Amino acid sequence: MNDIIILLQKESNYSKFSDELIKYQSPKIFALDYESHVYLEENNIQHVITDDILSEDDFAQIDTQTTDFIQNWIPQKLEKKFLLNNIFLPDLIEHELFSYLLTIFTSMTIIKNIITNEKQVRIIDFTQFSEYTESLVTSKEIIQKIPPNTKKALYHDKIHVNFSLMKIPFNLKISRKTFQSIKKITAKITDKILDADINQIAKKNIFLVNFDPIQYELFLNELRDKEIDIVLYNPRKPAVTNLKSLNIIKNSGAKIFDMYDIERLLHSEISNHQREFESILEVVFNDKNYFESILNSSKPGMWESMRDSLKSICVERLNDSIKRILVLTKFFDDFDIKLILQWAEVGQEEKEGMKVGKNFKIPSYMLQHGRFLTSKKWTKFSNFTGHFPHKKISDGQFVWGTLTEEFGKTQGYKNITITGSPKHDRFFRHKNENKRSDKILIATTGSMNLSADTSTINSQLKHDKVIMQIYNTLKKIPGKEFIIRTHPSPILTEHVKQLFNQIDSKVSFVNDKDLIDVIDDAELVVSFNNSTVCLDAITLNKPVISFQTDDWSFDEDIVEQDGVLSVKDITEFEINVKKILFDNTFRENILQKSKLFLDKYLKNQGTSSKNLANTISELI
Description:
The protein is an alpha/beta fold and 620 residues long.
């Protein structure tokens, strides 16, 4: 039988897929995501890239369906039951739910289009959406359902921990549960080494959520000089990852709040609340008619295909929030915290801290951490990207310069203070020798994954293609070495490393090195779609080429004001690379334009930490 359709996703059972494949002469195989495409490509198996059967209307509908679901998945009549200490729990997980649901609804739309367009008589479904597939076909007999090994997961289900021991870097990918177990053990060790008694917090203090001590060393020292006690709360990443971070914390006098003692104290209360909310979630997820109505689907399989995995995710994430909310409530009740500072307005842990703080009238502030996306394409998704979200929580915002302040005002924000960027102080203070090392740094990113049309196979393949073109272009220039620094997103990092394993496994990755040293040792920095690394390079007086793979990137302020040399194809890239490397006049002109933009974008260059510490001192 040749009339066979096979549906494959990242999480599919590939062993069983291989068993089925040999039974048929020429099945039509559909890859639903980038990872399944890569698997099929590597094994020379002909297949269809399913993005090609999605229209612009499909993409728009997926975006709308995702945002509508997030806004409505809790029935209005039950909203009060999801309040814990006046905090609406579902609000806390919107950021991760958005990226998760985008992929779910994209896959379902693809399957619907396949069933509509194809006339084959049999389907073998290796995806988690087989219930939905079955609801679309005329007869159950024509579909064979083979469940995947796992269901689709959330972005933070795996924790990537980078640390060093005796100057040897270690990079681990572990489960959230394992991460918390390790964190408990290391917390006890660091507490003894630091000997910083959290019970001795002074009246003048600040609560920092998920701050990296290495990036913000100068800021921590300025707070210390202002006699402001620092409490580090790092539920997402350990505050201590190596000897340097340990010494920074010790020198600043910062105290680490690890929450485990309070968690033990409140164990029964936490468990009772978790059980209570799990029973409420059970009621919600069993209301099949309600979900079919908000999904606007007459096909019952849509909800059945996503219910169990979504329920599991919500239970786990909300249980985490319940625990942290109760712990923070106890902590803020015991200690007179004066101000909360965070840099990820939409992060689950940041939201928890700010919302619990509001119950104690503790003001919370957001500190800009990167170059904000200002293109109109992204403003409608700001509740999920954190770039001045429409659902504002923080009481005030500290930004890097006038351009970000102006953008914040267009988003409806009023209490904005320009402080500059504390994490860039060490860049400005770095002694740049302007040495020509013959190294070219490629700072890779990947598809945005912030809308349906940037979460596709083709959107990632477009980046892969550009990276390969850049590699081939630079390889032709004699005497030049290039190094790779991937975007910190673990997904994007894995994609790039996998790509270079195919084209050049000897390429040097420098993610474990200090970014300042990496940029300082480069003659040129190549980035994509105006990543924040562009600013990092400009501060060190390095020329930057930003390769624009998407039209929206041309609307960004850094492009419009010539902060970077912007190119859109490989021919333009090759011409400009050679000009920068071999034409000193052209190179200096690029650097001058970048400096003009930098002066507009970053204020208080080299003194931002002091400026921010002074501002905070006045506030508390």
